[in-house]
């Protein structure tokens, strides 16, 4: 028999707070985590853009019995308890809900994430020929270290609306037989001047040009014969002419597949995990959630990486519009008062990633208030920067509610900020939902190499995030 604990040890156990390693929670949990993450990696590979991710989610929702809310609204059909409905907003954002036993006006349990990620967008007039090569001009999207995004393989995704109004989907570089593209970099032998520059200037925004080809069209009388040959190939494959680039949304994203990292396969390396890791866990939690007392809702927004702007971002009317339709189809006397009452009675976990402590760059973290890979889901009471500017700062009551829920459900969690005070900072969609009167708390997955072409997460953290979202959706806050 082991030695009995001393009085001091027992007191410390009772009074002190220590984080836990989620890997030590049991083999059964680990097996579930590995199984869940196989599905997660498939989501990452199939949904590399906001449009693609929304389409993947819609297929899953239809397969699981969700009905299109817009069609039901047009038909004027009333919704009953247990109804499952969804709405796709302009192909780039998603909202879906399970109606609970209580009236919608009594409040909703919401989870939310964003499905856009940093990337390289193609400009509207992009195609040009120079020095025996054809390239596309680009404009990077979101906060990136530009030097990380050169000399890697890219795939090209998006849509083109042609002159006759028809739309064609583009996806080149994901199939093993497809060509890929790249952004070239300067060789070390000639980079003496380049290497003297600041990191922000080593590669310029206008220098991120996507290499498209080098073979000329066979006609000696023509100029820009290589460009013409590329246009010919695009026309044969997609019916495009050069002017069609003006009405296109094309994104260059890393052509890597999601892969296990580490000899123990405990980590995932992939593009776009900020914030599709949280989007996936929210979706899976909703699909597995049982109908409960309160209505459960998930919202996946666009444009978070550039401020949540536009008609598909969290600052838009999308969430309010979706909830107003739920209220209209479940109540006899809809009004704005009813909508505001619902929002004020609602709770939300805003799911977004948090930078995990990287052993190679420890100096930017305040370790007592930092997130760590393997320590489970991470809670952020507040975000923002420079004195919490632009933060969503959750109340003590909201923190207490979620802390008790997670502890009761055996969910491994810890709390963190986004680096040292005055070191940097950032934001999520939380503040825009909080502005509506909803009680909101940020809660997500620790991540390494955020905003790089290959981000890294821990499988056990992904699983704990999924468990956390499901427990919250099924809960009944007082």
TrEMBL record:
Pfam families in the record: Peptidase_M18
Domain of life: Bacteria
Protein's GO biological process: proteolysis
Single annotated GO MF: metallopeptidase activity
Cofactor(s) annotated in UniProt: Zn(2+)
Gene3D superfamilies linked: Aminopeptidase i, Domain 2, Zn peptidases
A Gene Ontology term for the protein's cellular component: cytoplasm
Enzyme class: hydrolase
Keyword hit for Transmembrane: no
UniProt entry keywords in alphabetical sequence: Aminopeptidase, Hydrolase, Metal-binding, Metalloprotease, Protease, Zinc
E.C. no: 3.4.11.-
PANTHER family cross-referenced by the UniProt entry: ASPARTYL AMINOPEPTIDASE (PTHR28570), M18 FAMILY AMINOPEPTIDASE 1-RELATED (PTHR28570:SF2)
Similarity remark: Belongs to the peptidase M18 family.
Protein name: M18 family aminopeptidase
């Amino acid at each position: 028999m082991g030695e009995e604990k001393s009085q001091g040890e027992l007191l410390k156990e009772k009074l002190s707070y220590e984080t836990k390693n989620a890997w030590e929670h049991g083999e059964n949990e680990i097996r579930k985590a590995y199984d869940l993450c196989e599905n997660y990696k498939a989501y990452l590979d199939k949904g590399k853009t906001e449009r693609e991710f929304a389409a993947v989610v819609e297929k899953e929702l239809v397969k699981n019995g969700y009905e299109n809310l817009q069609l039901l609204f047009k038909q004027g059909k009333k919704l009953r308890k247990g109804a499952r409905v969804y709405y796709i907003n302009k192909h780039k954002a998603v909202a879906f809900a399970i109606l609970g036993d209580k009236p919608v006006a009594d409040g909703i349990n919401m989870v939310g994430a964003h499905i856009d990620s940093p990337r390289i967008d193609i400009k509207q007039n992009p195609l040009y020929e120079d020095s025996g090569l054809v390239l596309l001009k680009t404009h990077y999207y979101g906060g990136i270290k530009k030097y990380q995004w050169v000399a890697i393989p890219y795939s090209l995704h998006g849509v083109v609306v042609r002159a006759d109004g028809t739309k064609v989907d583009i996806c080149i570089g994901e199939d093993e037989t497809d060509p890929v593209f790249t952004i070239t970099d300067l060789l070390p032998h000639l980079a003496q001047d380049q290497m003297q520059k600041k990191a922000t200037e080593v590669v310029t925004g206008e220098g991120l040009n996507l290499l498209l080809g080098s073979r000329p069209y066979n006609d000696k009388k023509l100029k820009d014969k290589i460009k013409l040959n590329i246009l010919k190939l695009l026309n044969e494959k997609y019916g495009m002419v050069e002017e069609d680039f003006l009405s296109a949304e094309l994104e260059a994203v890393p052509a890597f597949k999601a892969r296990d990292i580490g000899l123990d396969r405990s980590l995932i390396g992939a593009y776009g995990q900020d914030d599709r890791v949280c989007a996936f866990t929210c979706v899976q939690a909703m699909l597995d959630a049982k109908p409960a007392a309160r209505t459960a809702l998930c919202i996946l927004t666009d444009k978070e990486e550039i401020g949540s702007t536009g008609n598909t971002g969290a600052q838009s009317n999308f969430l309010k519009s979706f909830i107003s339709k739920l209220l209209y189809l479940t109540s006899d006397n809809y009004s704005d008062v009813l909508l505001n009452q619902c929002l004020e009675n609602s709770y939300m976990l805003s799911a977004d990633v948090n930078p995990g402590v990287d052993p190679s760059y420890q100096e930017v973290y305040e370790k007592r208030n930092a997130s760590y890979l393997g320590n489970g889901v991470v809670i952020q009471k507040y975000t923002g920067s420079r004195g919490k500017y632009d933060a969503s700062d959750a109340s003590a009551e909201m923190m207490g509610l979620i802390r008790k829920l997670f502890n009761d459900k055996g969910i491994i969690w810890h709390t963190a900020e986004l680096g040292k005070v005055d070191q940097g900072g950032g934001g999520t969609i939380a503040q825009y939902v909080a502005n509506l009167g909803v009680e909101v708390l940020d809660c997500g997955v620790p991540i390494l190499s955020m905003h790089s072409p290959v981000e890294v997460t821990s499988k056990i953290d992904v699983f704990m995030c999924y468990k956390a979202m499901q427990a919250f959706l099924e809960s009944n806050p007082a």
